[in-house]
Amino acid sequence: MIPTPPPPGQCTPDDHRLHRRLFLRGLAATGATTLGSFGGLFTHPALAQAARRSQKNCLLLWLCGAPSQFETWDPKPGRPSSGPFGSIPTTVPGVHFSSLMPRCARIAHHLNVVRCMHTTQSEHLQAINLLTRGNPDRAGFTRPTLGAAVSAALERLETKIPNYILLDPNPEGNEFKEYKASDLTGWLGPEHAPVRLGGSYTQLGRAADGLSDDREARDALRKFFAKKYETERASRAATAQNAAFEKVKGLSASADLFDVAKLPEKDRQRYGPGTFGMHTLMARNLIEQGAPFVMVANGMPWDNHVFQHEIHQMLVPELDRVLHCVVTDLQERGLLESTLVIAMGEFGRTPWLNASRGRDHYPNAWSLMMTGTGLQRGVVVGGTDADGVDPDGRSFNEQNLFATIFTALGIDPHGAYDLPGFPEFHRVEDRAAPITELLA
Amino acid sequence: MKLELTKTLTLPTAPLGLAMRADASRLYAACMDGGIYELDPAGGEPVRFGDSHGSYASGCVLLPGGRTLISAGYDGQFLWHDVGKKSTFRRVQAHGFWSWQLALSPDGRLAASVSGQYLAGGEKYEPAPALQPTVKVFDTATGALVRAFDHPPPVLSTAFSPDGRLLATASMMGEVCVWDLATGQCAAAFTTPDFTSWGLIKSPHFCGGIYGLTFAPDGASLLCCGMGPMADPMAGNGKQTWQRWAWRENPPRLDSHIRDGDRGTGLMETLAHTPDRTAFLMAGRQAQGS
């Protein structure tokens, strides 16, 4: 039966579904029996305190395509595996970064680097899934991505900013495009799907500017997002208009945060002219306004099989600049204590150059950076052998990484999902341990 | 024309530049381990020079007489080597970034090097302007800087005209300049879009460019080589490409180019005319190294 549309200017009951559910959940959590109004939810002392306690955020700088560890965090000067770029000392005694990263070298005591990641997938799509879902596949079940899992665990009552935002200017991306079109929320459901935005945001800006209570504008915006979701093949969000509409409402309340024209010019210059910097700056603002999880990507530019050194000479300095800016800004604003910042790709690059002088996929031994809430600072975990072929001793995989991330965010890494009728799934399976020396 | 492989010589690491004695009795290779090596084409082990570059050695040229070799590297330096002693007697910091390519004037009096780092300069990752000249010309006898030119970076290739009065330079963005070495002025400039890609599929930035450049023996045209537009720049799957430009015409005119049936995929990096000047050779790396 087709439901009767509500009169103009009124929302459907489903428009309030998410908030009502959260409202009820909030009541249960605090033991409160009555609240005068929905707005009163956020002024109730017990709930407000609980909300503040949970105000942790996560910023994932997704370096899709996989950067070279040798040209970033694990240089091998003088070795055959070294590329043409040198290494420089950092503020952490004895630790060197690539010479392409002078800014990060100056704040190395605020960063942590894991140099002994060891994973098993060497193809992009499988590796992207592995490193964003945190566990190997299990046939017949789709795990939520990190953003969805964090969204579900940290969903905010006090902000309308969407819980999971993916900023990516590139609608393509080869395997990454396929990933983006896949089911990113798994069993958590479409309300935890990312709001995915990118580029100039012109279309969003126009839509958000026109948002009002009149039905026509709402419908236009609804159609815009419905279309956006429909283009993402196999996404359950395509059938979740209500969830999409909740996101629209959140976006409309925070439209300025997505408006390039409203980014301060001074900040734009600091973060650099590229879209990666621009989106990371937006991510900083979103985090500052309470967004629990923001993922910044920029297509799949790091997959340099042929023009390795020709492209890394540009990408790494941009990463260096952007990381320095965002970590420094979050620190100066007191937000690094509550924000986890991760910069990583889906694997590393080979210690040897191929015949085209490029580096190929290499999951055997690679590096990532993470810092912020729940973590130590200035720690370099593990290492690799002289040429970076193997981890030098211990290594960590995607499960150890996710256990670290969840622990740092105050989320039980081994907690089971509430999935009636499903086998038991945990945020991190096999009770994999976090990387303990990273934890504060 | 048929090419026949007559000898395979092995070096410790890959060479990015080669020079040869006029009588072909010795080869000199600038290699990715920073070293310069002397080889006897007839066989034997390569002999490494005493000093090396701090990064890849990207090119080397042998001065007339064969007693001095100049090498350039990704450390931005020029090294003057005594060939007999295999030792360095002069070191000049030519650039703050790589020397992408090195060229010697026909009379051996000048050596030119091109540089410039690709850094993001715009929302579409247009190259940012360089902070210092990207083209430098040195006196090979004294090491003195003779000329410096500002060509938007990164400048990948360079070549002297047959009469030594002109220097051509070309960039990742397909911009070609012909510099008058006497006046320091740009004698001609043109841009060809056919060597540069912007990554629609995976990589929202530019790549490619003109990796090899040479004047025709009569100086009237310029040959450029590289890789044609790529659907997926990261895979390096563009077509092997050359173009011949009548640079003296106003405006410069594309005279001819490689035919589709004559090419496979790959990045072409070097050009050379045959001694009889009736043909030229083009070489480089193939896609994915295959």
Tell me what you see in this structure.
The complex is a heterodimer of chains A (440) and B (290). Chain A has 440 residues and is an alpha/beta fold. In chain A, 33% of the residues lie in helices and 11% in strands. Chain A has helices at 17-30, 45-53, 102-106, 124-133, 146-154, 175-180, 202-209, 215-230, 241-253, 265-271, 275-288, 308-332, 398-408; strands spanning 57-62, 87-89, 96-98, 112-117, 164-167, 195-197, 293-296, 339-344, 348-349, 361-362, 366-372, 379-381. In chain A, the strands form three sheets. In chain A, strands 6-5-7-1-8-11-4-12 form an eight-stranded mixed β-sheet, with helices on both faces. In chain A, strands 2-3 form a two-stranded antiparallel ribbon. In chain A, helix 8 crosses helix 9 and helix 11 (275-288) packs parallel to helix 12 (308-332). Chain A is globular, with a radius of gyration of 22 Å. Mean pLDDT of chain A is 81; it is low at 1-53 and 200-214. Chain B has a domain at 94-289: YVTN repeat-like/Quinoprotein amine dehydrogenase (Methylamine Dehydrogenase, Chain H). Helix content of chain B is 0%, strand content 45%. In chain B, the strands form seven sheets. Chain B has a four-stranded antiparallel β-sheet, with no helix packed on it. In chain B, strands 5-6-7-8 form a four-stranded antiparallel β-sheet, with no helix packed on it. A four-stranded antiparallel β-sheet of chain B has the order 9-10-11-12, with no helix packed on it. Chains A and B meet through helix 11 and helix 12 of A and loops of B.
